[in-house]
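Homework help board

Subject: predicted structure for assignment chain

Our instructor gave us this sequence and asked us to write out the predicted structure in token form, then describe one feature. I got the tokens but I'm not sure how to describe them. Can anyone check?
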Amino acid sequence: MTLFEEIVRLHDAHLDAARPQAVEAQRLRGCLTARERIALLLDAGEPVIELAALARPADEAVDAPAEGVVVVTGTVGGRLCVVVAYDATALGAQQSPTSQSKCERALEFAEQFGAPLVLLAEGGGRRANNVPHYRERRELAATGARLAGKVPLVGVAFGPTYSSLALLLGVCHVLIATPQARLDLGEPPPEGDEGGGSAEALLELQRSGEVDLGAADDADAVALARRYLSYFGERVISFAQGDESGVRAALRSVVPENPRRAFDGRRLIELIADPGTSLRLRERFGGSVQTALARIGGRAVGILASHSMVMAGAIDSPASDKMARFESLCDAFGLPLVFLVDTPGLFAGPQAEATAMNRHSTRPYFVMSNARVPVYAVTVRRAYGQGQVVMTHGGGAKPLKLIWPFAEFGGMGLGGAADIITRSSSARRAGDERSRNEVLEAAQVHGSALSLARRGGDDLIDPGETRDRLIAALRQAPPYPLRQSPWPVDSW
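My token output:
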């Protein structure tokens, strides 16, 4: 065998075709191999470069092809992307100094070329026959955190994931998981892996906010990663606005006539966005505000919509945290923000105070006070108290404000305000003898959409015109330049 033939043999030896038992083991678990996941993620037929493919354990008797981690560069949607895929069939993807250096090299590539990084994770933990390498593990997470404001970071958990690999997933901007995923910052059990999670466990991870997107299986998880990255590639795509009469009619009727009835903010997002382009993130966490990446008139945007089916749309601590992180993400990568407002205000009372609501509620203020992307706020029904400020505060980029005809504004719910005024001793001392209904009627007139529009604050529009207005505004907005200095995205 010539030297060249030996090189070919060494490269072929770690491919799936040469490892039928490893492939079959993944099949029995209902999973794809690391290389199959990569193939689904990257553009078909485009060049792929694998880095350090011949890395192996120092002990030749140990079977860990590519040291348990496959690192490649290729394109996703035509954009250069760096992919790090851990191979659980190679010693459970337990990490060694060599595999750590491969991953660090991938992070350096992503930083150097401004390329998104996708982490396809399964397994992890320290390889038992290696001395601990705590410094390297610390540096890996630190490098990932440094990248958080520079390039999109996507993490996908396909099964039980441990130690520093689980930590690195936590640094990513979006975390996608399958029902078999489990995230454990400890080491894998010495007696062997306990197996993956479950559909119920995945729902709990989503409710807690740890997982942004739940996937049905491996292929679905990879498809979600590709879809997520599409919003950060070509920011404006060609868009032919066809007959939207049905959308206009739906927008005019989406808000119930009964002001006490809740309605689905997710439905509102679907109507505002170009058909089939919205991707909701953290849907089950902080549910009173729904966040979604979408396109409007072909332009990639971030949408935040009040969801009155949860807590009547009141903004609590989880919703505040969710909003702040989403706003940071969009501002860091130049995606305009669209707010769809129907909130009774911030969640208040002893239960809210027990969650440090006062501190959590300021997080969106901090982000939006420094935001530079264009901001558009549409008040569709209620905008009361501090909730209206949190949902319409444009910071450095003052928002374009649109209001629907039945919108109401006030320092708090108008009925509650009328109760307080008519019962207060100060009102009686001032000789205010108006009944509750009279006070309420006056507040409704003063806080009405028409009254606000006449005072020159917001633009009163037909709800059916909302998409047309936003499309026009987004087309007039100049391309947003990325920040010269990175704008870090909080991992929470």
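Reply (TA_rk): Your tokens look well-formed. For the description, you could write something like this. The longest helix spans residues 97-113. That's the kind of observation they're looking for.
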